[in-house]
Design a protein that fits this description.
The chain is mainly alpha-helical and 263 residues long. It folds into two domains: 1-41; 52-230, MetI-like fold. 81% of the residues lie in helices and 0% in strands. The protein has helices spanning 2-27, 43-49, 52-84, 88-103, 106-124, 130-155, 159-166, 171-199, 203-208, 216-224, 230-262. Helix 6 crosses helix 8 and helix 7 packs across helix 8 (171-199).
């Protein structure tokens, strides 16, 4: 009876989380513009890809997400290694500080960055746009990389690095051939998480984008202020599928790496 109750509870939670998404995806193929089903069609996807404003927003979003995740992965990996080399309370203090952007409300981060960029723009003569959004995304993605790489560092046998040095590797060669190889599952997971968070971020982007730069989440928000637009359904469905595929790939790669390590 207890197991049956647990299954029912799990089913209710899953239905609550995913039924709206299923509804959205289904109605992205609706021939009508209302919530009344009027037949299957692909015209909203065609209209979506023919909309130059949406395509520009998509291009901006992908470029920002890719650059931010790459740079955040590099910075986060180096930061995780540096934090691990500290000892005792200093390490714990730095780790706690690096976790603040994760637990900090996005509205606070967005407003604070907006004030910073506005002040810097006034002093240095630039407007908020691509570069301010990129810097903001790097800032909030880097802690997620640190969070993913740090456990891999703790699991790694430190004698591997020393053995590589004893066998003739230079410190740089030992770092790239041994340390990075051991940390790669965590680095890859951090990269994918950074990419997905950057891809669908709205709040921080909204406050740091200025008046001319547009990303996809902001574009979707603008579309929802008008009457129901089926292109928004199609766009949201594609974003959900993209994030789902990325997460599946991430889990598959991590699982395969763990099995190889166990063997």
């Amino acid at each position: 009876m207890k197991k049956k109750g647990q299954k029912i509870y799990f089913a209710v939670i899953m239905a609550f989380l995913y039924l709206p998404l299923i509804y959205l995806i289904a109605y992205s193929f609706n021939d009508g513009k209302t919530s009344v089903w009027k037949g299957f069609t692909m015209k909203w996807y065609t209209a979506l890809f023919n909309d130059s404003q949406i395509m520009t927003s998509l291009y901006n979003t992908l470029i920002i997400a890719l650059l931010a995740s790459i740079l955040a992965t590099v910075l986060g990996t180096l930061a995780a290694i540096g934090i691990y080399n500290f000892k005792g309370g200093v390490r714990s203090a730095i780790q706690n500080v690096s976790n603040i952007p994760i637990v900090n409300p996005e509205i606070v981060t967005g407003v604070s960055l907006m004030l910073l960029f506005t002040f810097a723009g006034t002093m240095m003569g630039f407007e908020m746009g691509f570069w301010t959004v990129l810097l903001a995304h790097i800032g909030f993605c880097t802690p997620y990389v640190i969070l993913n790489v740090t456990p891999r560092i703790k699991q790694m046998d430190s004698s591997l690095y020393e053995a590589a040095l004893d066998l003739g590797c230079s410190p740089v060669q030992a770092f790239f051939k041994v340390v990075l190889h051991e940390l790669m599952p965590g680095i890859f997971s951090g990269f994918l998480i950074s990419f997905t968070y950057s891809l669908d971020d709205f709040v921080i982007t909204y406050f740091t984008r200025g008046s001319r730069f547009q990303t996809l989440p902001v574009q979707i928000y603008t579309m929802t202020h008008q009457r129901i637009n089926p292109k928004a359904n199609a766009l949201s469905a594609l974003l959900f599928v993209t994030v789902l595929v990325i997460l599946i790939i991430s889990n598959a790669v991590s699982s395969r790496k763990d099995k190889e390590a166990a063997r």
